[in-house]
Specification:
By secondary structure, the protein is of the alpha/beta class. 37% of the residues lie in helices and 20% in strands. It contains 6 helices and 6 strands. 35% of the residues are buried.
């Protein structure tokens, strides 16, 4: 489940399948234990409207344990309809109300832009969820490769 994907510029990208609040709590505990000096950035894609709605408060409370949390849209299941009573923006608000530092990102372009503006060396980036978030690793790797490089120099 916890898989190292890429490392460069003192930044490591991991992926984890966690999609339940208890799994996220365990993951963040593992990160703090093994990487206590590094900034943790979690990119979380909630999986299913029903699970996100049922555990909204637990997700919010547990996601306050990372330094920054990027919340993506809910990855819907084919077995359930869209539920407007729960969303990535609502989860983001709940995390921030609980004392976390969460940012809503509508899709991989917004995520990459946030990372470009905020990612620094000595960071751990973890994509988290049971949806298709692992498809975004290439965009994250592109950003990691640019950290610390002068924008005016040829790449």
């Amino acid at each position: 489940r916890f898989e190292m994907i890429f490392t460069a510029n003192s930044i490591t990208l991991y992926d984890d399948y966690a999609h339940h609040p208890d799994q996220i709590k365990a993951l963040l505990g593992l990160l703090k234990e093994n990487f206590p000096q590094q900034k943790t950035i979690v990119i979380f894609q909630p999986h299913t409207y029903s699970r996100t709605k049922k555990f909204l408060s637990d997700f919010a409370k547990n996601l306050t344990a990372c330094d920054h949390c990027l919340i993506m849209d809910i990855f819907a299941s084919a077995r359930e309809p869209n539920d407007p009573a729960v969303s990535g923006t609502i989860l983001t608000e709940k995390i921030n109300q609980a004392g976390g530092r969460a940012f809503y990102c509508r899709g991989p372009k917004a995520m990459a832009l946030w990372l470009k503006q905020n990612l620094s060396a000595e960071s751990i980036v973890v994509t988290v969820g049971a949806g298709n978030i692992f498809h975004w690793h290439d965009k994250i790797i592109e950003v990691i490769k640019t950290v610390g490089k002068n924008e005016n120099q040829p790449k």
